[in-house]
Amino acid sequence: MAETIEVLRAEHRVMAQLLDLLSEQIDRFEQAEQADYELMKEVIDYFLTIPDLYHHPKENLIHARMLRRGGAKAEGMHDIPSEHERVSERLHAFSHALICVLLDSEMSRDQFVGIAREFVDGERHHMQGEEAGFFPAALDLLSDEDWAEIDVRVAKLRDPLINGDRSIRFQTIRDRITLQ
Ligand SMILES: [Fe+2]
Q1: How far, in Å, is the centroid of ligand 1 from the Cα of 147?
Q2: 169 has pLDDT over 90
Q3: Residues whose CB is under 5 A from ligand 1 (ion)?
Q4: Neighbours of 22 (CB within 10 A)
Q5: Does residue 26 contact residue 113 with C-beta atoms inside 8 Å?
Q6: DSSP letters of 22-73?
Q7: Is residue 97 part of a domain?
Q8: What does the angle CA 133 – CA 178 – CA 88 come to, to the nearest 5 degrees?
Q9: Residues 9-50: pLDDT tens digits?
């Protein structure tokens, strides 16, 4: 049961690997070593596209169902939709900062590193919170019938990278991560 939670966990595993890749590049940039900007751009492109289209809507749906089932007071119940908005704001700030760096416009190395790490750390913290609080609370509160309905409703929202969509997008990161 609750296949959707397994799908969400698999998506988190991919995102965690992408955050590790970003971290490495941010470290390189900070130490004035050659950073892989193509890789950073692709990871940002992935985060701008996939979580908002395929991942967050599933979690928001679970959250809404939990509220309907009186879960506002459930332990581990976070305001997931608001967290997703803040994650998205930090991502947009990071993507803007990278463009500034690529255009050689006025942004100090420290400024860029600060904005980049804010996104990476914020995203890691957000996912850890979901794994430790939100998912267990959802599994606790929702019934088998709820999950059956949720599983059907989200079945079309599968991350194309995990599902082996061989479109031209995300070729670089596909070669750099493990899909379990
Ligand atoms: Fe998530």
Answers
A1: 17
A2: no
A3: 130
A4: 21
A5: yes
A6: HHHHHHHHHTT----HHHHHHHHHHHHHHIIIIIHHHHHHHHHHHHHTTGGG
A7: yes
A8: 50
A9: 999 999 999 999 999 999 999 998 999 999 999 999 999 988
